[in-house]
Amino acid sequence: MICVHCGCPIDKTYRIFPGDNIRLATCSHCGKHADPYIETDNVIKFLDLILHKTAIYRHVMFNQIPYRDRGIDIKILQMTFIILIFNTYSKVVSFLCSNEKRIHCEGEPMLFNSLNLSFSGYLSIIFSSCFDMLVYLTGVIISSKMFIYFFYKSVKIFKYNYLIMSLLFSSFGKIFLIFPLIFGYNTKFFWIVELFVLTSNALSISVILDADVLSSSGIILFAYVF
Length: 226
Prior knowledge:
The protein is mainly α and 226 residues long. The protein is 56% helix and 4% strand. This is Protein ARV.
């Protein structure tokens, strides 16, 4: 567990007193409540995720998700499945609304049952979405290792599973691709969601590596190009 404000390790986020009274623990380093998010509503947490607040990522990755020496948390895997569905949808729509196949796309709701693709076509796009995510995660791992080796050698422990979980969790912005299903396709919106996800990824990497946002943005840019 860590303090969500300064990132310093702590023993516990709250203390239990007689009578089942709970009091937030105070960080010995910064003097603030170590993790006020344990008393915060989920709606406020989601808003803070959208606002790109570092504290909420520290809360989720280090204080809320149970510690794992290896492997990925089951809730993150479930979230990844949903992300892949929306990512596949965006690829299908982008394919059909490309310049070569552009037919009444702008402003029209695009549902899967209205897309004239063969079963093999759907499978190829699903495979493409999974492959893209795998290559992107690989690119982040490679660039993170390079960053640590050349610029940030003070990092003694590098846990791949937390790096991957942070990337998958910070890709929650893909759920906003549900709006084209309701309000209609818009090319700019897809690019806005993509940019939002990339900036969220950069912030989550900065939390995991305890690096500045500029360095983590460079890592994400390398992985995106890769």
